[in-house]
Amino acid sequence: xxxxxxxxxxxxxxxxxxxxxxxxxxxxxxxxxxxxxxxxxxxxxxxxxxxxxxxxxxxxxxxxxxxxxxxxxxxxxxxxxxxxxxxxxxxxxxxxxxxxxxxxxxxxxxxxxxxxxxxxxxxxxxxxxxxxxxxxxxxxxxxxxxxxxxxxxxxxxxxxxxxxxxxxxxxxxxxxxxxxxxxxxxxxxxxxxxxxxxxx
Length: 200
What we know:
By secondary structure, this protein is of the alpha/beta class. It is 35% helix and 17% strand. The protein has one domain: Aconitase, domain 4. Strand 3, helix 4 (105-113) and strand 4 form a beta-alpha-beta unit.
């Protein structure tokens, strides 16, 4: 799942529902696993599949006219319990970006820790995105992490988005927290050495 992130241009999967919680993203019965592999198969499980395992034709992930690695979701995405498995499922399915007007804080951080970029946009921009995608399922969105902009290619409109500087660095370099520490081992060791000197 570790992939360097720069500029992504992709068509989108629209999920115009508000308050999508982590239990809807990945139902609790799948939380026994401790390995990230395979979670994408059960993303939105109860919305994607009937009880007999057959596909629900009317759910957007089962509609072949939609594709892409960007999920566009309604306000307050990822609310509910703090399970990291929800971010595992989103990343495991192949999404690189989730766009919404508001994310639950813990879920937002879980996405960042799993190399998925949560992009917060204004309500009007989100509505315009949904409208563009509804008119043309192949509508593309450009997400530029270095410049922190998101652009609706159908209308040319862009918005700036915020991201923590440390997380931006990690995403752009394909680093998790451990990788970052290893990369900065010399600095950490120098700091420790200096700290011992201060304590004497």
